[in-house]
């Protein structure tokens, strides 16, 4: 018993944690799990920490297949696909993640904490180089995917519009859902069938991006190309920062400040609907940090809030993505070898392009390839979390969101312009 108590999952002894799991399993089996904030949060936190723990302990998987992050995503998707978690619970999880704003809660804390906790000189210098690289990478991915699709008999137009753009659109809600409506308007048809063609590419692109990020991070972990989460070469003194001691009252202040910035983004989005709330929030926080307008004590409160959310909810978010946003059945249905090769072309070509552009612009190639190449093939905010978590690069969330939102907006505009000619 003493040995079992020494095994810890998220700081909880194994016997006690198994007690949590038993209570969760009984409540789900009896149909008594409250389908509200309490029940869904408990389920995601318990399953997320457990699945991450298992993934980190599995031989081979923990070294070559992404460890806990990928295992949590995959295990969640399998639980949903096999019916071990009932459909009403899956539906409530999807609502909780999106409509009830659990992802907004997590991402607001993540972005604000990541930017405000970053060195100001590093942020300004890296952004000026990273954004052009990200956009140039998308151009390379567009033409590479189209040309390979043409060689495989799938057509240039079909490959770029239904695979390349689907992977670069920035996810589901802010990506392929509006993209399908734009295509439908241009083709004078309904959006439903178009969305069903776009979704498998978005899902597979995200899975391949996760694998690609892991390969890059692991393969070049001990080389000069690795910035260990930092995009640009800087003095160690510039990035070394003392972590503030957690203070319950100050964490509450950080929460209020982060959510205020998010709500300003929401307000601005009502005036300019084509620019996502996240994008407005990133711009606002970036300006505040670049101009040094936020007092250091207030900055520290947001960094504290970010740390608490990251520590306790990252695995829960991964479990929620797996349960409610990765549809294994639709992916399996679309899985032809040509489809896989074209999807892989987008990921590989963008990874290589961003790697070499990063070297030319003086950025760390590992971080650039993950932050521009892999992230631009991910499912928006949720996909960014999955990719960065798997590569152990969560400090890059601000750059990831920047690339994803800007790139996604450009894809939506180009999609409307090109669909009449390339369908």
Briefly, what is this?
The protein is mainly α and 423 residues long.
Walk me through what this model shows.
With 423 residues, this protein is mostly helical. It folds into two domains: 2-97, no CATH class; 105-422, no CATH class. It is 78% helix and 1% strand. It has 20 helices and two strands. A two-stranded antiparallel ribbon has the order 1-2. A hairpin with a 2-residue loop joins β1 (8-9) and β2. α9 crosses α11 and α10 (172-187) packs parallel to α20. It is globular, with a radius of gyration of 21 Å. The model has no long low-confidence stretch (mean pLDDT 85).
Q: Counting H and I runs of at least 4 residues, what is the number of helices?
A: 20
Strand tally, please?
2
Which structural class fits the helix and strand makeup?
Answer: mainly alpha
Overall shape: globular
Low-confidence stretches: none
Beta-strand level of the residues, as a percent range? under 5%
State the distance separating the first and last CA atoms: 64 Å
Reported for the largest beta sheet, the result is: 2 strands, antiparallel
As a percent range, the share of helical residues equals over 70%
User: What is the element string, with H for helices and E for strands?
Assistant: HEEHHHHHHHHHHHHHHHHHHH
Count of spatially separate domains: 2
Q: Return the average pLDDT rounded to an integer.
A: 85
The spatial strand order of the largest sheet comes to: 1-2
């Amino acid at each position: 018993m003493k040995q079992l108590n020494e095994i810890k999952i998220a700081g909880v002894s194994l016997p006690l944690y198994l007690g949590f799991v038993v209570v969760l399993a009984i409540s789900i089996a009896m149909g008594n799990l409250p389908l509200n904030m309490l029940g869904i949060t408990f389920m995601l936190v318990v399953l997320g920490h457990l699945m991450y723990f298992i993934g980190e302990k599995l031989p081979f998987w923990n070294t070559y297949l992404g460890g806990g992050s990928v295992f949590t995503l995959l295990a969640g998707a399998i639980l949903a696909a096999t019916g071990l978690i009932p459909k009403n619970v899956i539906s409530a999880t999807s609502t909780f993640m999106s409509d009830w704003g659990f992802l907004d809660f997590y991402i607001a804390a993540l972005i604000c904490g990541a930017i405000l906790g970053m060195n100001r000189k590093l942020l300004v210098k890296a952004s000026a180089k990273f954004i052009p690289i990200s956009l140039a990478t998308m151009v390379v991915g567009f033409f590479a995917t189209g040309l390979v699709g043409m060689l495989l008999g799938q057509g240039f137009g079909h490959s770029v519009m239904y695979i390349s753009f689907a992977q670069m659109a920035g996810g589901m809600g802010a990506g392929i859902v509006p993209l399908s409506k734009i295509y439908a308007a241009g083709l004078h048809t309904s959006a439903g069938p178009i969305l069903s063609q776009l979704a498998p590419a978005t899902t597979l692109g995200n899975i391949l991006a996760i694998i690609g990020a892991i390969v890059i991070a692991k393969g070049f972990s001990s080389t000069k190309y690795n910035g260990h989460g930092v995009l640009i070469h800087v003095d160690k003194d510039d990035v070394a920062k003392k972590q503030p001691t957690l203070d319950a009252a100050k964490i509450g202040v950080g929460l209020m400040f982060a959510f205020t910035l998010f709500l300003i983004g929401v307000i601005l989005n009502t005036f300019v609907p084509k620019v996502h709330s996240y994008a407005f929030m990133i711009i606002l926080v970036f300006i505040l940090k670049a101009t040094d307008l936020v007092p250091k004590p207030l900055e520290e409160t947001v960094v504290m809030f970010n740390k608490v959310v990251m520590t306790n909810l990252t695995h829960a978010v991964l479990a929620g993505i797996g349960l409610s946003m990765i549809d294994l059945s639709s992916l399996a249905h679309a899985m032809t070898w040509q489809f896989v090769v074209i999807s892989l072309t987008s990921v590989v070509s963008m990874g290589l392009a961003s790697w070499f552009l990063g070297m030319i612009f003086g950025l760390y190639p590992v971080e650039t390839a993950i932050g521009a190449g892999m992230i631009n093939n991910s499912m928006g905010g949720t996909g960014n979390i999955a990719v960065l978590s798997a590569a152990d690069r969560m400090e890059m969330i601000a750059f990831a969101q920047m690339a994803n939102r800007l790139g996604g907006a450009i894809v939506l505009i180009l999609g409307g312009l090109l669909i009449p000619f390339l369908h």
